Amino acid sequence: MSRAVSLRKVTGLDRVSSLRRLARRRPRVDLSHPARSPLGSSVVNCVTYQEGHRLSVPGDAADAVKRVRESGEGFVWLGLHEPTSRGFAGIAELFDLHPLAVEDAVEAHQRPKLERYGETLFAVFKTVCYVEHEELTATSEVVDTGEIMVFVGEDFVVTVRHGRHGSLGPLREGLEADPARLAQGPSTVLHAVADQVVDDYLRVVDSVQGDMDQVETEVFAEHGARVDPGRIYQLKRELLELKRAVVPLGRPLEELATRPSRVVAPDIQAYFRDVADHLQRATEQIASFDELINSILQAHLARVTVAQNEDMRKITAWAAIVAVPTMMCGMYGMNFDHMPELHWRYGYGMVVGVISVACLLLHRAFRRSGWL
To answer: Does the pLDDT at position 56 exceed 70?
Structure first.
């Protein structure tokens, strides 16, 4: 069986139409996940667009590409979710994708980047999602990451998504509602993906701000020295993961905004500059979070040190007070016959009185000095 026949079995537009009807009835369900997708494979959707409008024509990806290239108009958008090497081989051959880019798209775990292979652009975006939690603990997951890879050619867009979040279904519907924008070509899809990813960064950053405020408030509270330092370290680790997703994307966006490319329309480059500005805002906020969490950690350690010093002073003060009766009782515990006041009727009361007065004077002195 040829690869074209295999693609026909997984990319029939009649099944795609039924998938979209199901998505409209249940908008909250992520149909792009293989366990939920009626397509039963890594292929989520395959659609042909001409003049910004979706074409409801029979055929598969191979037929769609052939139709577009013969007419010289429109483009094909093929979406996949966590494809295997075997399942992606036919698609790579159909769109003439570079083997290195194909390997990155299948294996995932890549840094955000932009690479050019002939007339094809290959972009990698790290997606992020804020993990809701009632209380931040030393093991709480704050940020979950995934990946979106985008192949962009003159007449096609191939999106490959890894992870259980960052679905492109709402993005596709939003673009289809604006045919004039979609008519500008495949680079419109690339911009929309980049814009959605960066917007998610900003939303996650705003959510992390709440965790930062909570930890900061607890550290500087009256009993801040009792805060578990593991919570602070966990938040710092999650911030580091967020930083690894956000910061490396700056250079690819700058290149898309400034460097001319045959597959990126000049009008779209201005929009990439806007996305780069939003990314810069997220990057600056993460950098400020990183500095703040270091300050919070240092403040927490300083408060722990101060608390330990206060405890040591209290222990020392009480030890000095206890030393007075210990000394006097030790002296009168010696078995000598000729000791002062040993046989005096009021000797016991005198010793107790002296001990009490001495302890009270020491206690008052320590209270005045702040040791107690």
So the answer is: yes
